[in-house]
User: Which sequence fits this backbone?
């Protein structure tokens, strides 16, 4: 079974998850939409991943899914998001991907997030600083990537 892992990552979290999945799934190929295009027709499994900003997946990923929707529907689909508010994992997935694709996904989950203002620039850094202050004030800690979720997700494509 051939697997395409198609992702877009603004600050590296979704890319880190894509690389983890790549290590765990045999015969997988990585497609970073910032630089790569992907012909999904030659794959059995298609995994789609991206980081959430203001409730939305990256426009590059949204456009890719819209342009390939019919072909993606024929595949075993996996969807993951990286987001700081884990309670919204399902809502972000349902609001950002076509209903038919979400319905037939064999795996769909949020893998957590990275939100280190020191790794960011400009507006992102500004937003991340404010968000982190709020989280710390509320007694929380910086969001992290949950590798056990990635492992469980990858098993569905083995
Ligand atoms: C400008 C900005 C907006 C964000 N908006 C949200 C949001 O609406 N919901 C959420 O749960 N996380 C939000 N986050 C956290 C990101 O989802 C998190 O940093 C994620 O790891 C980003 O993935 P990426 O590094 O692959 O781009 C936001 C982060 C930034 C910098």
Assistant:
């Amino acid at each position: 079974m051939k697997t395409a892992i198609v992702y877009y990552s603004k600050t590296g979290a979704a890319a880190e998850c894509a690389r983890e999945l790549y290590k765990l799934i045999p015969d997988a190929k990585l497609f970073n939409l910032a630089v790569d295009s992907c012909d999904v027709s030659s794959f059995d499994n298609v995994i789609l991943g991206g980081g959430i900003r203001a409730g939305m997946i990256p426009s590059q990923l949204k456009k890719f899914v819209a342009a390939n929707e019919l072909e993606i529907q024929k595949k075993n689909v996996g969807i993951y998001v990286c987001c700081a508010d884990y309670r919204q994992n399902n809502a972000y997935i349902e609001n950002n991907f076509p209903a038919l694709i979400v319905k037939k996904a064999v795996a769909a989950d949020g893998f957590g997030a990275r939100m280190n203002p020191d790794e960011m620039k400009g507006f992102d850094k500004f937003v991340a600083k404010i968000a982190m202050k709020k989280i710390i004030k509320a007694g929380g800690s910086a969001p992290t990537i949950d590798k056990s979720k990635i492992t469980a997700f990858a098993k569905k494509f083995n």
Summary: The two ends are 8 Å apart (CA to CA). The pocket of flavin mononucleotide is lined by residues 9-14, 51-55, 82-85, 88, 113-115, 124, 127-128 (CB under 6 Å). The domain at 3-114+145-155 is CATH 3.40.50.360 (Rossmann fold).
